[in-house]
Design a protein that fits this description.
- By secondary structure, the protein is mostly helical.
- 83% of the residues lie in helices and 0% in strands.
- The chain is built from 5 helices and no strands.
């Protein structure tokens, strides 16, 4: 019965942590001037290109594929890190704020770096912009990890491993 209670509290904590991470990601993207400019340019350019493509006869399945790719990227950034750290933390009985906050933040910040095959070298301006985005992603993961810890990790039983 205790196990089912921990599973329920963990699921509830994840249901609260993931939207919090999405909120922090959106807020960080809007408050950072570089990210705001990049997203604004990409958003308008993508909107106009999508409308031109639809008008020229390209089917709506292309839009669906783009939306699926966007949803997959959001899943990898917002859902996978908190769930992975929650499963590891609950399994190994690690329930510290540093584990959930810093661990989820680091994993979320590393996802884009791990997802691509090779890093660009030599372009310092692009590297600075990627550093700012990495910082926003770290804050996103840290916020979702700390929300998970506040709901599920702080008052959990501390018997068992470590």
């Amino acid at each position: 019965m205790r196990f089912l209670g921990r599973v329920f509290v963990g699921c509830l904590a994840l249901l609260l942590a993931i939207p919090c991470g999405a909120f922090v990601l959106g807020l960080g993207a809007m408050l950072d001037p570089v990210s705001r400019d990049v997203l604004g340019n990409l958003g308008l350019a993508g909107l106009f290109e999508g409308l031109n493509d639809l008008a020229s006869g390209i089917g709506p399945e292309t839009v669906l594929f783009a939306l699926a790719a966007f949803a997959r990227a959001l899943f990898l950034l917002l859902v996978l890190p908190p769930v992975a750290l929650a499963v590891i933390g609950e399994t190994l009985n690690w329930r510290s704020a540093a584990w959930y906050g810093a661990g989820t933040g680091l994993l979320t910040a590393l996802v884009p770096w791990l997802a691509r095959s090779a890093a660009r070298a030599g372009d310092t301006q692009a590297f600075a912009q990627e550093g700012r985005i990495t910082a926003i992603l770290f804050l996103t993961g840290a916020a979702s990890g700390l929300v998970y810890w506040l709901v599920a990790g702080r008052f959990g039983p501390r018997d068992g491993a470590v």
